[in-house]
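User: Could you check the structure of this?
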Amino acid sequence: MIKALFLVDSYVKETKARVISIKDGKYVTLDQTVFYPKGGGQPHDTGKLIKGKEVYNVVYVGKFSGEISHEVDQDGLQAGDEVYCVLNWDRRYKLMRSHTAAHVLASLLNKGTGALITGNQLEEDHVRFDFSLEKFDRKLLEEYLEKANKLFGTNIPVKWYELPKEEAMKIPGIVKMAGAFPPTFQL
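Assistant: Sure, the predicted structure tokens are below.
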């Protein structure tokens, strides 16, 4: 089973890894990875796999049949090869900040109006969130954006932790997605 280093420390930027398998010359499975796969409204990471002087650009990362697959831009890697994984950190960091900001806005809007998230899409340069508001009200959304921006200006530390699902579900308002449970990430 692949070791998903991003689940242990989202600030890990690089690591050595061993190629476990190759499919069609460009879909690479590693024994461990720093690359987050696309899913849950979040885009995949990009970066490089380096073998000696050869550089393989990671252009897509997905999760298929429980395995994380790294699509590279050229053939050449073989099962058993040792590679050095280098994450496109600037992209990841922008996505992390956007993800956190989106959660803050969604939480404020939910507490203030009861609105739930009905859809979302994070990208490197923009974020889209859909809310279950009865009617679109630009002034209301701008008010909550201003509240979120004021909160960001206070420099409050961001903390994250994991709870067993049974314990998390006891927290009022924990689920902000309409008709959904908290996501699970199983490898």
